[in-house]
Design a protein that fits this description.
This protein has 248 residues and is of the alpha+beta class. The chain contains six helices and twelve strands. The chain has one domain: Roll (T-fold), CATH 3.10.520.10. It has an eight-stranded antiparallel beta sheet.
């Protein structure tokens, strides 16, 4: 069973290949994404993160989930030598860590429900488990940032997460905390495969902010592999990335 809905301002797809899956099984996951959007959306004036940014809610009085995200963001900032920071000009925007965290939790809900073969995709970032309906690893495409209709690489994945950071869809929405006034133009796409989508998402964002050295950062991360496309269209990937590339 597979369904796609627009949530958190992006398409969210949930597919479960196990027998016994029902519409209610998927509804639980979509309901969770609605909850996350209501709490962390910077576009909703009454969301918890907006109340914090407005000064109406002290961080110390924030919900457990909010405090968890703030702690994870700080941990990521330390792990990336400051190349990941959810605070800019005094405003918090936790989207760089929330999406992967939410996908991971959504996938965990399916696992706790007893499912073993599923796929959760939010805005192109995915967590995959088990096999698809054909009994094969799940396949994930990496788009050509210069031609959105073209897939430059197809990956086959299971029990891992895949996240891509880039400027080819939403423009210059990623910035370097080291120099937030400068546009990031050295690279246009950076994909990370990790055991968990939470790590893939946050490290893809941080590595993109590093520019061309970001792929070297991913190379050094245990369990992570990466694929980077620079502004000239040249691809560079980590030493273990090739094992995920699907070949007919």
């Amino acid at each position: 069973m597979k369904e796609t809905r627009i949530l958190m301002g992006m398409p969210v797809t949930v597919e479960v290949a196990d027998a016994g899956v029902t519409a209610a099984s998927l509804e639980v996951v979509f309901g969770y994404f609605r909850y996350v959007d209501g709490k962390f959306s910077t576009y909703q004036d009454n969301s918890e993160i907006s109340l914090i940014n407005q000064g109406a809610l002290p961080v110390e009085q924030a919900s457990m989930d909010m405090r968890t995200i703030f702690a994870l963001a700080e941990q990521t900032k330390q792990a990336t030598n400051g190349y990941f920071d959810i605070r800019r000009n005094g405003i918090y925007d936790p989207s760089g860590v929330v999406k992967g965290w939410a996908i991971a939790h959504a996938a965990g809900m399916l696992r706790q429900a007893g499912f073993k073969n599923y796929y959760v995709d939010a805005g192109g970032d995915i967590q995959a488990a088990g096999k698809n309906s054909h009994g094969q690893d799940w396949r994930v495409g990496i788009r050509n940032p210069f031609n959105m209709q073209e897939i430059v690489k197809v990956l086959h994945v299971s029990e891992c997460g895949v996240a891509t950071s880039g400027t080819y869809v939403r423009g210059q929405h990623i910035y370097s905390p080291k120099n937030d006034a400068e546009s990031l133009k050295e690279i246009v796409s950076l994909t990370v495969v990790a055991p968990d989508i939470y790590d893939a998402d946050r490290f893809a964002t941080a590595a993109f902010a590093m520019g061309t050295t970001g792929i070297l950062f991913i190379e050094q991360l245990a369990g992570c592999e990466g694929y980077m496309i620079n502004a000239q269209g040249r691809a560079t990937f980590t030493s273990g990335f090739a094992r995920y590339i699907y070949h007919d």
